[in-house]
Every structure is written in C-alpha cells, then in structure tokens.
Amino acid sequence: MIRETFRPWGRLELLLDQLDVERWSFIGAVSTEDRCSTALEILSEHGPQEKSLIFRIEDAPSRFYTEVERKTGLKEQDFTSLGVLGSEIRNHKLLGRHGGPLNDAIEFISNPSLENLIVDISSLPKKFFFFIIRKILEQPERLKNVIVTYTEPGSYCFESLAENPEAWNPLPGFLPPRKEPDNKVLFIGLGFEPLGLPELYSSGLFSSAKIRLLFPFPADPTGVARNWDFARLLEPVPGNASANIERVDARNVPDTFDKLVSLSEHGQIYSILAPFGPKPMSLAMCLFASAHSTRENNPSVFYTQPTVYNPNYSSGVKIVDDRPMVNAYCIRLNGNNLYASIK
C-alpha cells in the first residue's frame, strides 16, 4: 500500500496498480465529450466493478440543444457498453433546484456497502462535483479509499466553450459566513471563459478583498494565450490584478492546495474561491474549502455557472506513451482524509 503520509497522484492505471483494491464504485457524467467515459474504460480494464452513478445533465434550451442531446445520447451508449445499467444513469436539468442530483449523490455515497470510490470530474459541472466531494469527505471511515479522476482532452474548440452564465452565487454547500470578515482574499482560478467575471470585477464587488489570480503554468501555448486574455480583462480595474498572479501547475492538486493554505495563512484569512480555471485546480479549491469548513470564517466558493455548453467543447483524449492521459488524485486513503485542515 502507498504510505498514508503522502498525497498520491498520477496516471490512473499506475495508481490503481499500487492500491490493494479489487473492486471500485464509480461516479461520473455522460456528456458530448469523447473523454467523459475514458476513466471508466481504464477502470474496466482492471476487472469487474461495483455500482455506478452516472449523471446525464440537460442544458438550458439553446441553439445547441439538439446537437448536445444527440451527441450525449451517443456517449451514453459507451457507458452502457462498459456495464453501466440504465437505472444507474440519472437524468437531471442543469438549471433549477439542486435537490434531485444532490440527493442522488447523497443516497449513493451513504450506502453502507460503499468502501472504495472513484469520482470522475472530467464532465461533471462544478456546481455538482464540489458538493459531492464535500459530502464524501464528511463520510465516516467505512468509506476507505477515494480517488478523483480528470481526463485531459485532445483539444478544446476555439469558439466559446460555454455561454449565458447565471449570477454570481455560492455553490451548494459553500456559503459564506453570516458575518463576512473585513480581512479577506479572493482567489480566482484563471481559465478560458470569463463568464461575466470581469464585469463583476470592474463593478467594485471585490474592491475590499486582496486578489490572487491562480495562473495555470506550464500549459500548451494556446492555453497560456487564452489564460492571459482572461487576466487582461481584469487588468483595468484598481489594484492592478495582473501583479497578483500566482503560478500553479494545473495538474498538481497537492501543490495548489498547499499554496491556498499558505496564502490564506493556514485558513486564518477568510477566502473567497472563484473556480474558473481547469478542473484539477478547482478540485484543489474544493478540498481547501472543505478542509476549513468548520472554522468561524469558513471559506466560500462563488461561481457564475454557465447554462449552455458548446457541443464541441472538447474533442478526443490526450494520448501520452500510447495511453489516455487520465490524472488521478487520492483524497482519502485507508479511511483518512489526505487534505485536512492544519490547526
């Protein structure tokens, strides 16, 4: 077994080989993306698995709706071919009340027979996977091992990835304190789509907070250019946000978590987290906010959730050494949470 003092991460197949676990349960999402079933494909190579929970999330009506539904239906067939039962695929709408999908998640992870779990966030909306991860970390020690996976796509489309964002609101389970402290820091994960954030930024909404922009680097040149475009949209506002850039490796969840801990003085400074960046960076934000959730000045997570996704959001799966690039992160090992608050 891997030593519990580490926060293991790496390629999924290598991590699975190092863990003494024969059968895993699985949470994921079916979408238009080729990568949405890749983690389950790799898991299936290791033998029969336990139960699954697959979300099929319906976007808001748009000019993309018909194509999104068509492509998602085709990808759903990939899940069933991997042994997922029809009853394990749950249909929910992206908009409206969160009760349905969140209740499904709570019911699934509360099953007393559940011991080993993989959560694939590659195609799960952040408003759902933040809540799921938080609830998993609150489970008792009977839930022994938990891995979070993220599959890198072959490429992203050059058009807008997502549109028509909702208002700036806290994600379920990550509300701010009743009395927001005066001393606060806003961590913005830089991604490809600003989703209305620059307008909120320039309105003065965050004028009383220190700003830290988490910039994904290293990254491919196209990605770096799009991240810089995002940062420049925040540049004209008072405070010169571009001077507050913190470089983070977008794949390295442990390092990003540690950076958030350090910049917040071990959670002593009230933190507002804005997960607009890559999913692994957002996972680190989720783990940080969850680890410090019991503090009086608990971190909050705010987002402008897009309601429409481009059916060509990404294509293909990144291949390295003739294998799909699926990053895997142990967040619980032998019943112990590996990302915990430092008192």
Report the end-to-end length measured between terminal Cα atoms: 27 Å
Give the overall silhouette: globular
Number of domains: 2
Structural class: alpha/beta
- Binned, the helix content reads 25-40%
Helix count?
9
Characterize the main sheet. Answer: 8 strands, mixed
Give the C-level CATH assignment of the largest domain: Alpha Beta
CATH architecture of the largest domain: 3-Layer(aba) Sandwich
Order of helices and strands, N to C?
EHEHEHEHEHEEEEEHEHEHEHEEEEEEE
Query: How confident is the prediction overall: mean pLDDT?
Result: 90
Radius of gyration: 19 Å
CATH topology of the largest domain: Rossmann fold
Low-confidence stretches: none
The amount of beta strand, in percent, is 25-35%
Total beta strands: 20
Descriptive account of the structure:
The protein is of the alpha/beta class and 343 residues long. The protein folds into two domains: 9-157 and 313-337, Rossmann fold (3-Layer(aba) Sandwich), CATH 3.40.50; 167-304, Rossmann fold (3-Layer(aba) Sandwich). The protein contains nine helices and 20 strands. The strands form five sheets. Strands 1, 2, 3, 4, 5, 6, 19 and 20 form an eight-stranded mixed beta sheet that branches. The protein starts with 8 loop residues before the first strand and ends in a 6-residue tail after the last strand. 42% of the residues are buried. The model has no long low-confidence stretch (mean pLDDT 90).
Any descriptors?
about 350 residues; 9 helices; Rossmann fold; 8-stranded mixed sheet; alpha/beta; single chain
Question: Could you outline the blueprint of secondary structure elements for this entry?
Answer:
Elements: E1 9-11, H1 12-18, E2 25-30, H2 38-44, E3 52-58, H3 65-81, E4 89-93, H4 99-109, E5 116-120, H5 126-137, E6 145-151, E7 153-156, E8 162-165, E9 169-170, E10 184-189, H6 197-202, E11 210-216, H7 221-233, E12 245-248, H8 253-263, E13 270-275, H9 279-291, E14 300-303, E15 306-309, E16 314-317, E17 319-320, E18 323-324, E19 326-333, E20 336-337
